Amino acid sequence: MKWQAWHRLEGMRDACKRLLSDVPAPVAAAPTRQPILSRRKQAATIMGASVTDEIKYLVTAIHRLGEKNAAGQVVVPYGKLVHDDQISNTLEGLFGTLKAAKKRKVVTFQGELLLSPVHDKVEVVLLTDVVPDA
Predict the structure, then answer these.
(1) Per-residue pLDDT reduced to its tens digit, 38-60
(2) Which one, 11, 52, 59, 60, has the greatest CB density within 10 A?
(3) What residue spans define the domains of the chain?
(4) Residue 103 has pLDDT above 80, yes or no
(5) Residue 126: CA atoms inside 13 Å, Cβ hemisphere, count?
(6) Which of 85, 106, 82, 104 is nearest to 94 (CA)?
(7) Which InterPro entries match (predicted)?
(8) How many whole angstroms separate alpha carbon 58 and alpha carbon 94?
(9) How far is CA 40 from CA 45, 50, 127, in A?
């Protein structure tokens, strides 16, 4: 009895092998990789506003909070920017946005690093309203 069951199993296995030998093995498609740049752009759109959009918001906030100086430029103290609720709720990081705006020559301020209680009186000067893309 055991021999007969084993023989049937062997016969089924051989039949399956013959059937499967006629069918070509499925070929998996090679995965396509996206370029790194497009993945970074996707991450930027998923995570929120881009740096350019944050700088544009900063320009409007400086217009809202600032005053014109003798040269006709809009000037706002850093402390006023730090303590404004709308800015703190909208921007990811105020100093990072200011640094990016300074690099694009949209604003200027004295020093490399601005810390809130120490540099509250440092003036942030708006140079232009036009925000260039990176």
Answers:
(1) 665 665 555 555 888 999 999 99
(2) 59
(3) 49-126
(4) yes
(5) 26
(6) 82
(7) Costars, Costars_dom, Costars_sf
(8) 9
(9) 9, 11, 29
Tokens of 69: 């100086």
Q: DSSP state, 108?
A: E
Both structure tokens of 13? 């296995």
Q: Extract the tokens encoding 80.
A: 């006023």
Look over the chain and give the mean of its residue pLDDT values, rounded to a whole number: 81
Name the CATH topology of 49-126.
Arc Repressor Mutant, subunit A (1.10.10)
Q: Between 94-103 and 51-65, two packed helices, what is the crossing angle to 10 degrees? A: 100
Instruction: Annotate 20-81 with DSSP letters as a single string.
Output: HHHSPPPPPPPPPPPPHHHHHHHHHHHHS--HHHHHHHHHHHHHHH-EE-TTS-EEEEHHHH
The C-alpha atoms of residue 56 and residue 51 are separated, in whole angstroms, by 9
- Distance of alpha carbon 94 from alpha carbon 101, whole angstroms: 10
